Amino acid sequence: MRAGSGIDGEAMRFTFDGKAYWGVDGDTLAAALMANGVRLLARSFKYHRPRGIMAMGVEEPSALVTLGEGARAEPNVRASDVFLYPGLVATSQNAWPSLRHDVGAVNSLVSALIPAGFYYKTFFGPPSRWMIYERFIRRAAGLGRPPQGADPDRYGHRAAFCDVLVVGAGPAGLAAALRAVEAGRRVILVEQDALPGGSLLRENVTIDGVPGAKWAARAVGRIRAAGGRVLMRTTATGHWDDNFVTAVERRVEPGQTSRGLAQVLWKLRCGDVILASGALERPLVFADNDVPGIMLAGAARALALRYGVAPGRRAVIATSHDEAYRTAFALAGLGVEIVAILDSRVDPQGALVNAARARFPVLVDARPLRGLRRGVALAGIDAMVGTTRRRFVADCLAMSGGMSPVLHLHRQAGGALDYDAARGAFLPGAARQRQTTVGAAAGEHDLRAILDLSKIDDPLGPVAPAEPGPIWRGEAHGKAFVDFQNDVTTADLALAQREGYVSVEHTKRYTTLGMGTDQGKLGAMVALAQIADERGLPLPQAGLTMFRPPYTPVTLGAFAGPARGDHAAPIRRLPLAEAHDDLGALWVPAGAWMRPRAYLRPGESLGEASLREARMVRSLAGVVDVSSLAKFEIAGPDALAVVEAVCATPVARLGVGRGRYTVMLREDGMVMDDGTLWRLAEDRWLLTSSTGGAARMARHLSYVADILLARPRAAVINVSEHWAGLAFAGPRAAGLLAELTGQPVPAHMGLAQATIAGAPVRVLAASYSGERAFEVHVPAYRAAGVFAALVGAAQGVGGGVYGLDAMDHLRVEKGHVVIGAEADGRAIPADLGLGGMVRKSGGFVGWQALTRPALADCAERRQLVGVTSIDGAPIPEGAMLVVREGEEPVGHVTTSAPRVAGEGAIGLGLLVDGGARHGEALLAWSPTRKQCVSVQVGAPLFYDAEGARYRD
Amino acid sequence: MGAGRYSALSLLRGALGGHRHWGRAWRAGEPRGPYDVIVIGGGGHGLATAYYLAKDHGIRRVAVIEKGWIGGGNTGRNTTIVRSNYRQPQLQRLLEYSLKLWHGLSDELNYNVMFSPRGALFLGHSDADMARLAERGDALIAMGIDADLIDRDAVARLVPLFDMGRDARWPIEGGLIQRRGGTARHDAVAWGFARAADNLGVDIIENCEVTGFLREGNRVTGVRTTRGDIAAGRTGICVAGNSGHVAGLAGLKLPIESHTLQAWVTEPVKPMIDTVVMSQTLHCYFSQSDKGGIVGGGDPDFFPSYAQRGAPIRLEDSIAQAISLVPALSRLRMVRSWAGVTDMSFDGSPIIGETPLDGLYLNGGWCYGGFKATPGSGRLYAHLLATGQSHPIAAPFDLARFAQGRTIDEAGAGPMPQNR
Amino acid sequence: MLLIPCPHCGPRIQEEFAYERSADSVVRLDDAPDVAMTALFSRANLRGEEAEIWVHAQGCGQWLRLTRDRMSHAIRSVEPL
Question: Are residues A275 and A167 in the same domain?
Fold first, then answer.
């Protein structure tokens, strides 16, 4: 039976590569595998070298496995960062046919051919040849296999505010959180581990009379009791502007089935941030320092004290400072034979060293030279002791090359770093935001200083600040790794320096140093030390790479959160959506809206239905839902000024009760939107504009009123959603509407108040179809009755509803432009044949831009034209207008449609100098669709040129 | 100078000799003016400009002045997409000129930039989208540029992990693919051009920031730098992201604002996406790097910034959309995100041309699409700096177009950079 | 992730706001064409503090003048317009 600070003895079964094992509750997968004697967990990225456990936390570079099965399979999970759950299924990755016998290990044999950056120097020839090489490189690269299906898990986003955010529930974080919460501040404490305590979990210390782990658990209880929020298994991964911290809470472990949310992305806006993120131990650099069995001293100690697992039978400790000595005592407590403690210092002193000397062989001025491998496990090490080379037989090497404070969030938040040469470490310098750093993250490792009020009983006593490990002075053979995941060696770093990739960013990018999933947590400082050494610079002058979010990898699903499926983007539905459904509407997306495209009858195609509907409007009467159009009311003594500034057309002389077509320009003179403008009263206007431009127009009106006119005595109200809009068009429309309302209909471009089906409506006599037509505006909540009455009236004479496609056919025949098609954001009014209606006096947004020389002369610009299919064949929408196939285009077809009145096909287009080319024959050429139609260019007007039909 | 040509054979020789024979890829340049031409900015465009100045025009007294390390700006921060499938003919000509250079670039530079024409796919999510993609494809083919309008089934074959469900929030109806487009290794482009330019005698001066301009009346005669004054016959600004700042040192104001664009990359996995995926409707794009990470991005941050730092909401947006296209992405983990400062011009198109000051030229305003233009931009800018005349392909992209009304507005979004 | 102090609503997250333009680039309706085009197309784009127009678009709708550093993102002042 194992005993440790972090396990409670409840056994659970799990599998690794199909073989069943037992672990206990509280184990990480790494600890459980070690307890079962499994030392080989993975193969490395490039050379496929056998790898075991290196670290016991998020800095683990090598022991990556795939967790879970099927759609829950999750690649690249650190075995040290997943807690056991019943039925856990783990699989090794990046090895074939098996982890033990991996063909990829052949890369080790040819490693001399594939040094850092080798791919930049070879594989020449045409790109097609590179792509053949690339296929093999891509297959060899990558780590785990990608998931295959949709993610069955759900993710959430939560926002929270606090006075104090404490990151890390080790002793320093707990102490800081306790102080803050007891001072009455709103506190959130986040901890990435499943247990609080941090370093206390791997030490034999007693605080206030209880073991460290228990003290930590009680501290969490006290924080919660005082109103603080403690989020376990939650990693603060991003520190953004204005103390905004993102943290990811894992509510289930990777691969585990969740009933609720699998993960929550917390968005924390914090008054103060206290970083108590601890420190990470550094490896020592020597040949073959990656053999399974070689691990960080802290990891070995955590195995022993937290999980009750002996990392081997015979262990060597190699260190540059005191703290690793604790590991010797911890391992010895489990019966591990301590073969030697190799201390790189010449004359280490202190109580701990002396205590160790009494029990273990302590060798000074000693450093490992090479790890020795038998099969896939450590067999011993060669070391230099003084000037003597010695061999030690051991199956475990616990090493420590100093400690690196975890300052990622401090740096993300813009904080400075100060270099401490004695520790060989960066410590937090001045912060840019309201943020402080405490505990080991600030270089403070003395528990007495951190917990100043607590009674601490530590049998081994405090340790001096960690000193850096020795700089690698290589063996002739063997690989000495600085980045264990990406297989970056000291030789690679040296090569990069030789080749001039000396900036630390260049070295990183050339060798891929620190670009693995561990993001350089383990090896960055030892690599920097070597780079500085090679360049003969003090370490801080060698430079530092950026610390970029996230601190630890974050599941993409957590970023997306609830924005999945229909929630990935809003869908806007019309107030009459149900009524359209009842009529059999075929829906089509129009921006965020869903609008009826057509109402298909049995056996009808979309094209047939749309043409039927359009012809119905030409001959009888039809109703189309235009509720999504933008509508604005502008009212007040200065309302005219607002309208004049926004609309490029004359408006001042528009009479009350009258309306007219208008265009609105951007400041660069291009048509931004179009619509109709109505004078409801002397000082009250209604402006309609396009559906897609609604948000833009709302902002524009607000800008014009508040900024350009500096708070005019006018209100601009967006009434788009207040009113539903129903266009009622056709030769029978006027008569039917008069019957429905019991009053005469307004003249063309006039408006009237009326009542339909008991609901007050506003009738605007405007035509988009070319027929006599009325836009009926009704409060959205009363739209159903009015719609039913209009549709019923239309159906009574053989008409009915029509959809967007029919509406489009009708407007093409009349040559009306549409925002986004003809008015494509690159057209000035004159390009669209609207130049004549623009106010010559200016005074509207965009007037100045129209005077620019290239816009004043439009002959070289594209102009709106109509095109008619010469043989009647449909014209492909978007086709290029060319003189001959294969030539550069002179324009394109913006919209095409069947003729409604008559047979054949027509379209609108933008054609260079189009106004002068009426009568010309061109080709509408669509090579992507292998279509080519002869068309004749003409005026963009195919129906009722005199406008007789829509007038009274 | 580097140790000879790169090849499989020289690599073998290196293997036998512990790779000790490799020399520096480029010399650590020291200012030794006067120069015929100074290029301000050691990104891909600036280094390419220097290379083509020496190669095409035989101008050897050329210096590239870089405030930090070469390739450290947007060259090293973009999502490495290379394509020429634009809609406006001026941009089509410019980017196609560049794409042709990409296809021979590794051999040209004797540096494998890993240009991988794996296809650049625009997705269509509705009939309206498909019509727009068809229009773009038609326009491209009519200009002699490859484009292929493909249906749902063909899209599904390209990326089997797409959600092809009809009830998806953004159903995939088809796509437009440029098969000659793809990706390249961004750092290698900077290093390859640097090495090749260095071989032709160009001085590449890193850690040298321009602090002002030397002037004689209306003429710029060189630059003031943190390493002293350096005289030059012609000076070319090539610092996209910082164009506004550097031009400001000469008293110029540009139709450019600097905005933040973020990108993200996941942990590496075995091949799962073999083509570049882009959706204009969803505002996201992603591809898989050779190392195995999915690299993606989306909208910029919508307000001016030089900070190389963004907000997480933008990452959330593009990731959510990417997952809606490829649901299997959900369980991958982001390992890194970063931000670049983009030169947002006021019509969305680059500026390559003279400035109101004699002897001072500008190459900038690349918005978030500059990487793909690297070789073409450099070669056209070299033409301008060598001859004082714009190459016909670059001529439409002059600075005067804004005042004259000749803007090239691919997005049709107008003069507000944040609306693009 | 900026926290912008709206004079009406108090400090709010940047998502609620929209940047409009730099304060010196407002094109007045009565500006002469050359003045207008210079305002529109010539931006100082300072790598430092600049006055900007924003709107609390998803909040109270108030237009704001922010004095904001484009390098540090620090907001020195916010005034309603």
Answer: yes
C-beta atoms of C2 and A702 within 8 A: no
For chain C, helix (H) and strand (E) counts, in that order, are: 1, 6
Strands A314-319 and A294-296: unpaired
Kindly provide the residue ranges of all beta strands, DSSP E only, lying in B125-196, ordered along the sequence.
Answer: 148-151, 174-178, 182-183
Q: Measured between alpha carbons, how far is A403 from A444 in angstroms, rounded to an integer?
A: 11
B248: nearest CB among C1, C44, C70:
C44
* End-to-end Cα distance, chain B: 44
* d(CA A572, nearest CA chain B) in Å: 12
HEC profile for A401-441? Answer: CCEEECCHHHHHCCCCEEEECCCCEEEECCCCCCEEECHHH
The C-alpha of C76 sits at a distance from chain A's nearest C-alpha, in angstroms, of 13
Domain B30-84+86-111+185-255+347-419 has CATH 3.30.450.20: no
The dihedral sign for the CA sequence A735, A737, A738, A739? positive
Contacts of B314 in chain C (CB under 8 A): none
Q: Are residues A378 and A499 in the same domain?
A: no
Question: Longest Cα pair distance anywhere in chain B, in angstroms?
Answer: 67
Query: Of A718, A747, A767, which residue sits at a domain end?
Result: A718
Q: Give, as one character, the DSSP assignment of residue A467.
A: P
Q: Are strands A572-573 and A593-599 parallel, antiparallel or unpaired?
A: parallel
Is there a contact between C55 and A432 if contact means CB atoms under 8 Å apart? no
Q: Which residue of A has its CA nearest to C1?
A: A241
Helices (H), A458-605: 490-498, 504-511, 524-535, 556-560, 577-582
Structure tokens at B418: 């944040």
Domain range for residue A588? 582-627+722-802
From the list A76, A146, A509, the residue facing B76 with the nearest CB is A509
Contacts of B314 (CB under 8 A, 6+ apart): B262, B298, B299, B300, B301
- Interface ipTM: 0.98
Print pLDDT tens along chain B (420 aa).
445 899 999 999 988 888 888 999 999 999 998 999 999 999 999 999 999 999 999 998 999 999 999 999 999 999 999 999 999 999 999 999 999 999 999 999 999 999 999 999 999 999 999 999 999 999 999 999 999 999 999 999 999 999 999 989 899 999 999 999 999 999 999 999 999 999 999 999 999 999 999 999 999 999 999 999 999 999 999 999 999 999 999 999 999 999 999 999 999 999 999 999 999 999 999 999 999 999 999 999 999 999 999 999 999 999 999 999 999 999 999 999 999 999 999 999 999 999 999 999 999 999 999 999 999 999 999 999 999 999 999 999 999 999 999 999 999 999 999 888
Structural domains of chain A, count: 7
What are the C-alpha distances in Å from A913 to residues A828, A833, A836, A907, A917? 14, 12, 17, 17, 7
Chain centre distance of CA A96: 33
- Please tell me the distance from the alpha carbon of residue A551 to that of residue A247, in angstroms, as a whole number: 10
Residue A638 falls within a domain, yes or no?
Answer: yes
Find residues 10-39 of chain C whose CB sits inside 8 Å of chain A: 13, 18, 20, 26-33, 35-37
CB B410 within 8 A of CB B350: no
| Annotation: CATH topology of C3-80 | Folate-binding fold (3.30.2270)
Q: Kindly report the nearest CA distance between residue A845 and chain C, in angstroms.
A: 6
Asked if residue A152 belongs to a domain, the reply is: no
Contact B415 C41 (CB under 8 A): yes
Residue A707 and residue A776 in one domain: no
Q: The CATH number of the domain where A177 resides is what?
A: 3.50.50.60
Nearest CA in chain A to B270: A142
- In B293-368, which ranges are E strands? 294-304, 333-345, 351-354, 360-364
The CATH class given to the B120-181+258-344 domain equals alpha beta
If asked whether residues A409 and A350 sit together in one domain, one would say no
